[in-house]
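Re: the 67-residue chain
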Amino acid sequence: MKRIYRSKKNRMIAGICGGIAEILSIDPTIIRLAMVLAAIVTAVVPFLITYLVGWIIIPDEDELQEL
């Protein structure tokens, strides 16, 4: 079973988009563009809240390997 994690290699801010891209085996830029579109559509504030919550609850790649 694949688990979501924050990437250490494909990181711009928190590594959330990089981790999602690694799980889906696609380019992280596509995920980042989708996130920008989501931010525009949701008027930015709900997106930022969701991103911050993801940053808090999604484990880092190193933490996942310790489990």
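The CA atoms of residues 24 and 42 lie 24 Å apart.
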